[in-house]
Each structure stands twice: as structure tokens, then as C-alpha cells.
Write a structure and sequence with these properties.
The chain is mainly beta. The chain is built from four helices and 19 strands.
């Protein structure tokens, strides 16, 4: 059977007679604000707005030497109640014809229930005999570049113009998906996908740039393949689960020609001030309790049901929210995106 590698399907991928399980679950919105404990630890506010999900111990510093997410958090906005990790991305804004901005609301993928947030994936190797090593306490990583204003090497960060319903059959981040934001009105909104590396150096839980301690595979690995595929480089020999984010932006509420620029150019801008799309990025801080993630990966759990993990209701997950540490207006019609002056 031909391997389709459809990363974002609800069903398991079929490839060469093997099943490709994907731990896929929703994390509701925890908070939307200008904090970034990875790139700007301790800085209040950070340069641009992020949307954050996961454990409610998220804060401006989160020093890995002293901050243990499972024991410091009292709740999580994620489906699996043992996952106190934090996941965050940039935020999308709409720029109206009159020059004002409004934050684009988020919605969830079909088949899930939550208050916006991020659909999170943990994907093992397609080879059922190959074990992946779950992350260690203190592990964190980043993909993408908030300062990027031109096409870069982050090919695993992309956008998709969604249809009204259903799922296009093109593969993850393959054409017509693009690093650029769509230049048309999308009937089903815009989806951004962020796919992290699957090889670890086996020593460091972080690095100065939050990227050098991890790498993508070599050899036959495809830029579009999903999961812990391929052969890891000698410098990063340990296979880790592939973490992937799927974020749905409800641009449908702005599908009005009277609001769009008169020249027809696309009007969406990332909270980094980038109107092309190249600066979308994802941050990850591991916070699963004990060995729960390793058990789930060993069991090759699929979807949002896993016998190895404890779950909570969508209603309980949505109740886990956090007050903003930075008091500023991020919603409503704004004359500029919060932090825009810091990004200049």
C-alpha cells in the first residue's frame, strides 16, 4: 500500500502494512499575553504576544533548576491530566483597511472540544520495533524564528488555507501549504502547523539557542514525513517523539471585502509584526508527570484515548486558565499590536 503520511488525520496512518499511531489531543487556552520564559526569561513584558496552553505554573522565568512543572501546577488545560507541559506560539492579528488591528480568534479542529488553544501531537517511529525516548525533566526546545522576515530553514513551520469542512489530501507542509500566510480568503480559516525535530544529543535538556541540542533526521527522511522517521545524526543519536502543534485561526470572521485592503493584499499579521508569515514559531517546555509520556509512547497510543494515561473532561480542561501577568489590552480594535514598538 502506498504510504500517504497524512500527518493530521484522526485515523492511524497505514504504511507498508504498519499502523502509525499519533497521540493527538487538545489543550485549551491557558492565557494570551506577552511572556516568553525561553527566549526572554524574566522579562515583563516580552516583545510580542503569545498564546499559551498547558500547566498553570507558566510564568516569566521558569528556571529549570527550580521550577518543576508537575509539582508546581495545580491544573492543566490539556486532555491528559498528567501533562503539565507548556506549549506556545505567536498570535495572529487582522489589520483592517483603516489601519487598526484585532486579534484573530482560535477554534479547534474537527472532532475535538476545547476553548481555542493548540492541538498537540506526540508521534513515535513508524517502525513499531524502534523505541523513542521520552523527554527528561527540564527539557525545552524552540522551532522557528520570531525575527524572520524571509524564507528560512524552518520548513516544518507552515500555513494551510482550509476548506469549509474536511481535510485536504496534501501531506503535512507539502504544497500548497507554505511558509507564507495565504493570500486569499480561506473559507475554513487558516491552520498553522509546527513540527519539532526528532533527534536529541542525549545529554543537554536545553541549549543557548534552544535548538542546537535537537536535530532532524538524515538520510531518507522526507521534509514532509511525520513521526520519528529516518536516521539520527551521530551528534544527536537519541530518537525522541515528534512533537507537533496544529493551531486553527478563525479568519472566517474577517472574510469581508470591505475590510480587506483595497489592493487585495492579505491582511493578517503575526504578533511579531510580520505580515508574510515567516516568523511563526513554537516553544515547548516538557512537564509530563513521572514516566507517563514514556509509557504512552511505548504503548503506541493513538488519538486522545490511552490506557496508560489519565484523562480529564473537556469542561475540566477549559476551567484551567491563568490571569495575565502583563496588564494591557490585547483584544478589541487596536491602533497597534501589543509590543510592536519593541519589535521595531
Amino acid at each position: 500500500m502506498q504510504c500517504k503520511a497524512l500527518a493530521l488525520a484522526l485515523l492511524m496512518e497505514q504504511c507498508a502494512g504498519q499502523t502509525m499511531p499519533m497521540l493527538r489531543f487538545q489543550c485549551s487556552q491557558l492565557v494570551v499575553e506577552r511572556l516568553d520564559p525561553l527566549v526572554n526569561p524574566g522579562l515583563l513584558p516580552s516583545p510580542h504576544v503569545h498564546q499559551i496552553v498547558g500547566g498553570n505554573s507558566f510564568n516569566a522565568s521558569m528556571d529549570p533548576a527550580t521550577h518543576d512543572l508537575p509539582s508546581s501546577s495545580t491544573c492543566t488545560s490539556c486532555t491528559f491530566s498528567e501533562d503539565f507541559s507548556n506549549y506556545w506560539t505567536a498570535v495572529l492579528y487582522f489589520r483592517a483597511r483603516n489601519g487598526t488591528y484585532r486579534r484573530v480568534p482560535q477554534f479547534v479542529s474537527e472532532g475535538l472540544r476545547a476553548d481555542g488553544g493548540i492541538t498537540v501531537y506526540y508521534i513515535p517511529s513508524p517502525d513499531a520495533e524502534e523505541k523513542v525516548t521520552a523527554f527528561k525533566p527540564g527539557f525545552r526546545m524552540l522551532i522557528g524564528d520570531a525575527t524572520a522576515r524571509a524564507p528560512g530553514s524552518a520548513r516544518k513551520v507552515c500555513h494551510r488555507c482550509m476548506p469549509t469542512t474536511g481535510e485536504p489530501s496534501n501531506i503535512n507542509c507539502g504544497p500548497p501549504d507554505s511558509q507564507e500566510l495565504p493570500n486569499e480568503m480561506c473559507p475554513g480559516g487558516i491552520r498553522s502547523v509546527i513540527t519539532f525535530p526528532t533527534c536529541w544529543d542525549g545529554i543537554n535538556t536545553d541549549s543557548t539557542d534552544h535548538m542546537s541540542h535537537v536535530a532532524y533526521p538524515e538520510g531518507s527522511y522526507s521534509d514532509y514525513a511525520v513521526g520519528a522517521y529516518g536516521t539520527c545524526p551521530e551528534s544527536h543519536p537519541v530518537k525522541i517523539p515528534q512533537v507537533m502543534y496544529e493551531v486553527m485561526w478563525d479568519t472566517r470572521v474577517f472574510n469581508d471585502e470591505n475590510l480587506w485592503p483595497e489592493d487585495g493584499s492579505q491582511p493578517f499579521v503575526w504578533s511579531t509584526g510580520d505580515s508574510d508569515g515567516y516568523s511563526q514559531h513554537g516553544d515547548y517546555v516538557f512537564g509530563w508527570k513521572d514516566d507517563s509520556l514514556q509509557r504512552a509512547m511505548d504503548a503506541r497510543c493513538n488519538g486522545a484515548v490511552c490506557g496508560e494515561l489519565k484523562t480529564q473532561s473537556s469542561e475540566t480542561a477549559m476551567k484551567c486558565t491563568k490571569s495575565r501577568a502583563v496588564e494591557e489590552e490585547i483584544d478589541g480594535w487596536l491602533t497597534e499590536i501589543p509590543g510592536m514598538s519593541m519589535e521595531r
